[in-house]
Amino acid sequence: MADIIRLLPEYLANQIAAGEVVQRPASVVKELLENSVDAGSTSVTLIIKDAGKQLIQVVDDGLGMTETDARMCFERHATSKIKTTEDLFRIKTMGFRGEAMASIAAVAQVELKTRARGAELGTCLTIEGNEVLKQEPVAMAQGTVVSVKNLFFNVPARRNFLKTNPVEMRHILDEFQRVALANPEIAFALYQNEVEVMNLPAGKLSQRIVSIFGKEYKEQMAACEETTPFLTVKGYIGKPEYAKKSRGEQFFFVNNRFIKSQYLNHAVLTAFEGLLPKDSFPFYVLFLEIAPETIDINVHPTKTEIKFEDEKTVYAIVRAAVKQSLGLHNIAPSLDFGADVNYMPLQPMKFPASMDFEMAPAQAPKASSPMNTPASFSSRASGGGGQHQERDTPPTREVSRANTEEHSHLFPEEEDSFAPAKNTMTGGSKTLQVHQKYLMVQVKSGLMVVDQQAAQERILYEKYSQALGKRTGASQQLLFPQTLQLSPADFSLVMELTEEFTALGFVFNDFGSNTLVVNGIPAEIPLRDEKELIEGLLEQYKNNLSALKVDRQENLARAMAKRVASRLTGRLSDQEMNALVDRLFGCQVPNYTPSGQKTLVILQTEQLQDLFLRN
């Protein structure tokens, strides 16, 4: 039998490696920026054309490379960062694998210009598909210029797999932002299609945060610092009242390397427990300094995953640091350890003697105003006109109306709780709202309970799906236009979805510097905090991207329905309750929300009888 195992050619091995290292233009940006940081640069400029598909260029003033090093940096597993196995466990640089430049050169046309410190001339190297086309001396300033052109030119399937320009640009902005945050002592600039997007001068971390996210962050930041022999935590957290409905402004850096860690994120959220509004996420930029030998960053080629030798201790220190910062800035309530701990025992509630809530004997309803029960709800929902009328069984006991009226001033929020519903539904049924969350409707087979918010979500989803399909969304103009400043990534996402937003009924203009001026929002949405609405919508859309495989319009319709439904809560009038139930049963799928949550539950009469142990 002939030998069949053979060594792969170098160019093919590099293309395979590129599949892990270079997934999209943002991957190239990350590797090149980190190389510039490792080179000791004081100024780095990133130039992007066509969202990185046409050109990604990084210019720095770092150490530069000699002629030999310039050639060697494109070889696989060639690196200046480590030499021995021991070095692998003491890594302090961003790169160390020696794969990035070889992988990039395998799938793009690359030009490298570099000049080492002290050298009179630099070197210009041109590579295409891992093949060196030319190498020649060049006059240039000290530092390095790497130009990556026509990414995936020789892998058309990968190039076709790339998303639209706004999507790819959003990923590039994310990578640029992370590297810039990690290195505030370095000046960074970003140009897209010859337009300056960001210009970040060197300075302190607080100045870098304000430069990236906006001036309003100056007020919301609270310093966070904790030093222990095992771990040092430094950085800033946002005050709870400035928490946003969208994720994306939570950053962890371990030894200046950006990482993703749900475990540490949970530590921060636990420290904020009880301080954040529902479904809100605090801003934070936290740097962890820890001995390199106690962590393992050699987990994934992207190097954003990390393993700690002692995870629980890291969790505890991070949580304590955030809690301490919240306490120092008078954000969290502090404990008064000097107070008397011998608390008074709880006493039973005492009412005035007159409030004995006498039970009146049962009274049958008057014949002139019978209390009717509806026919089967399904027949009403489908348009049937059957109106079965039965006399309701009178209650066995009822609260004395004289007593409730006499003492209604003591319980103003419960003034209507003892009063029976006065209105009846079209089909003869009566709807009752419970805790401003649920609607109870009597049906022929028993009792139907409708989740008010879930019902709104189903109704709105079908409405917005239709509006997106037909481009017929109606708008309501704002009396005073609202200015909304977004993160670069969220602004890019809004620009990507401009057509869909307009179809839903949003009216806005680009005001520059990642800022929108909102002039109108979809009709029938309560006019309350348009900024929170859009931020929440973007967050829900991004959450759906990671959890669902649906198209853009479907995703946006789901996100919009969920966010708007969360606003349509509170007390409803009888007419509003009846209309809500009618609209729900006018939907194509009334029983479930788009995400599969039940909108209603029917309790059979037999089930109700079982609750009271009746035969």
Fold blueprint:
Blueprint (H helix, E strand, L loop, with lengths): L9 H12 L3 H14 L4 E7 L5 E6 L6 H6 L12 H4 L11 H7 L2 E7 L6 E7 L2 E8 L4 E7 L6 H6 L3 H18 L4 E6 L2 E6 L4 H9 L3 H4 E7 L3 E8 L11 E5 L2 E3 L2 H10 L12 E7 L4 E2 L10 E2 L2 H18 L30 E2 L16 H5 L16 E2 L1 H6 L24 E4 L3 E6 L2 E6 H19 L4 E11 L2 H9 L1 H7 L2 E6 L2 E8 L7 H18 L4 H14 L8 H11 L15 E5 H7 L4
Parallel strand pairs: 1-7, 11-13
Antiparallel strand pairs: 1-2, 2-6, 3-4, 3-6, 4-5, 7-8, 9-10, 10-13, 11-12, 14-15, 16-17, 18-19, 19-20, 20-24, 21-23, 22-23
Helix pairs in contact: 1-5, 2-7, 7-8, 7-15, 10-11, 14-18, 14-19, 17-18
- Give the biggest sheet: 8 strands, mixed
Number of strands: 24
The CATH superfamily of the largest domain bears the name Histidine kinase-like ATPase, C-terminal domain
Please give the share of residues in helix. Answer: 25-40%
Label the structural class: alpha+beta
InterPro entries: DNA_mismatch_repair_MutL, DNA_mismatch_S5_2-like, HATPase_C_sf, MutL/Mlh/PMS, MutL/Mlh/Pms-like, MutL_C, MutL_C_dimsub, MutL_C_regsub
Region (Disordered): 362-427
Domain DNA mismatch repair protein S5: 209-327
Pfam family, one: HATPase_c_3
For this entry, give a set of tags:
615 residues; alpha+beta; Heat Shock Protein 90; Ribosomal Protein S5, domain 2; Ribosomal Protein S8, Chain: A, domain 1; 3 domains; eight-stranded mixed sheet; five-stranded mixed sheet; 20 helices; elongated; hydrolase; nuclease
